[in-house]
Amino acid sequence: MPNDDQFISLPTMANDTNRFQAIISHCKEYGFIFPSSEIYDGLSAVYDYGQYGSELKKNIKDHWWKSMTQFHENIVGIDAAIFMHPTTWKASGHVDSFSDPMIDNKDSKKRYRVDHLIEARIDELEKAGDAAAAGALQQAMDSLLAASDFVGLKKLIEDQKIKCGVSGTSNWTDIREFNLMFSTQLGSVTEEASEIYLRPETAQGIFVNFLNVQKTGRMKIPFGIAQIGKAFRNEIVARQFIFRMREFEQMEMQFFIRPGTEDQWYEYWKEARMKWHLGLGIPKEKYRFHPHVKLAHYAKAACDIEYEFPIGFKEVEGIHSRGDFDLRNHQEYSKKKMQYFDPEINQNYIPYVIETSIGLDRTCLMVISEAYTEEDLSTPEKQDSRVVLKFPTKLAPIKLAVLPLVKKDGLPEIARQIMDTCKSQFRCFYEEKDTIGKRYRRMDAIGTPFCVTVDQQTKEDQTVTIRYRDSMQQERISIAAIPGIVNQQIGS
Ligand code: GAP
Fold it and tell me: Cα 384 to chain center, whole Å?
């Protein structure tokens, strides 16, 4: 059997505090995620997906899309434009209400989101073991935020003696709201140009198409419209890798229902979405629901599904009971009826909506964080370790690596034949350079679940060695069995 431990360079083992940093470095080193326009020193809170990151992202997208549309006969997908008529954002409330309370430090001129500043203090208290003070501060912040009490929030910051990380002073301005939408000009001549926004959520593309889809698809309530696409927000606090970006992707679904049934559908979608998360193979202790204290301008009830990232429990997905807020406002602003005739009760009404909204980039970060494993493989004779990304097979960027043991004796030709058979079914990777041990470890580092090695015996009996990523176990199987083994794991 090809030897797994020929590769003995030792990656530094990350402890809890530098695990996040280790993941960021791994993503860059192995072609998952790069800072945007890095040759110009990058662009704050904007990232590019590399050769493996984009495969992973696409697999997550496909998995979500399939589970939403193919598995629900009453949910269809659309792909609306990023640019929308500017009145859309007036009607949706984003022009007036899509803002965060911010505070500036007068000495450093650095701007902070108020909740992030206070949360950092809560983290400090927790780390210092003062859970009671941390809990009390959390409660105080939550109720002041819910009441939009900016004077009270500033007093809280001052009472806690929170300092700016750059100037080290507590010389704060008053708290003000800043809108998070990016705007640009449509049209080339200034006088003709009109100001439009880059969409801050994909949801509005669904609302404005509600009647188009309902009528052309002859959809009956309850039904849903799903969409995956880019959204843009001028986030102030950056430096959280792909957790908080200025350009990101959302996977959203608006579920249109009869008014009065919202509580039951809200519970239904909370449960259904948590089931989807658990289906990724992530244990349930790593998730929790977090009900919103301060509701977004459109929401009647809302909660987040939070995952325990290396930086703590944070939101991955929001589930929102939006009532008829959006459709009613679009009806008012557009003067077009947004009503549905319900033949079962013989009534016209504006449907209510339950929304599920998950960030694609945050899901990528969640899947990578969960998969990232450092293993100490040392024996009394030799020190050894590996970094392996234990992705579920269906999400892994590469499913199968085909590796001829040596670059001669007809082994590459056999390996190429295996590639030809398998590459139309799933993503394969061919490599003949370096020792087999090094090649295995490179495949571990990008999360490839199966490696098959073609050796001299293959020529005699048409068998190869298959090596399983997580257990590192190896066994002999026939070439003909390869696609079945891989496909079975992709489907599970
Ligand atoms: N349509 C509802 C909506 O947009 P949201 O809670 O503001 O709700 C939904 O956003 C999801 O989008 C979040 O749970 C998160 O996963 C993702 N998201 C929001 N802002 C983000 C950002 N700046 N960077 C990355 N993902 C973000």
Answer: 32
Helix, strand or coil for residue 72?
coil
The answer to whether the Cα torsion of 214, 218, 221, 222 is positive or negative is negative
351 near 427, Cβ under 8 Å?
no
Amino acid at 109: K
Which residue, chain included where needed, has tokens 């704050």? 44
Whether 203 lines ligand 1, by a CB cut-off of 6 Å, is yes
Cis amide prior to 310 (ω within 30 degrees): no
* Cβ–Cβ < 8 Å for 403, 431: yes
Domain segments of the chain as ranges: 16-96+181-369, 99-179, 398-491
Which tokens hold the place of 353? Answer: 């909506």
Q: Binning pLDDT at 50, 70 and 90, where does residue 335 land?
A: very high
* 79-89: pLDDT as tens digits: 999 999 999 99
Task: Say if ligand 1 is within 6 A of residue 199 CB.
Answer: no
Per-residue pLDDT tens over the stretch 269-324: 999 999 999 999 999 999 999 998 777 777 788 999 999 999 899 999 999 999 99
CA–CA separation, 32 and 365 (whole Å): 11
Two domains, one topology: 99-179 and 398-491: no
Q: In testing the pocket of ligand 1, which one of 315, 320, 354, 355 has its CB within 8 Å of the most ligand atoms?
A: 315
Q: What is the pTM of this model?
A: 0.89
In angstroms, the CA 351 to CA 206 distance is 13
Best residue among 47, 239, 250 to mutate for probing ligand 1's pocket (most ligand atoms within 8 Å of CB) is 250
Class at the top of the CATH hierarchy for domain 398-491: alpha beta
- Which tens digit of pLDDT belongs to each residue from 415-435? 999 999 999 999 999 999 999
How many beta carbons lie within 10 A of that of residue 430, not counting itself? 15
99-179 — its CATH code?
3.30.40.230
DSSP character at residue 11: P
Domain 16-96+181-369: what homologous superfamily? Bira Bifunctional Protein; Domain 2 (3.30.930.10)
The Cα 232–Cα 247 span in angstroms is 5
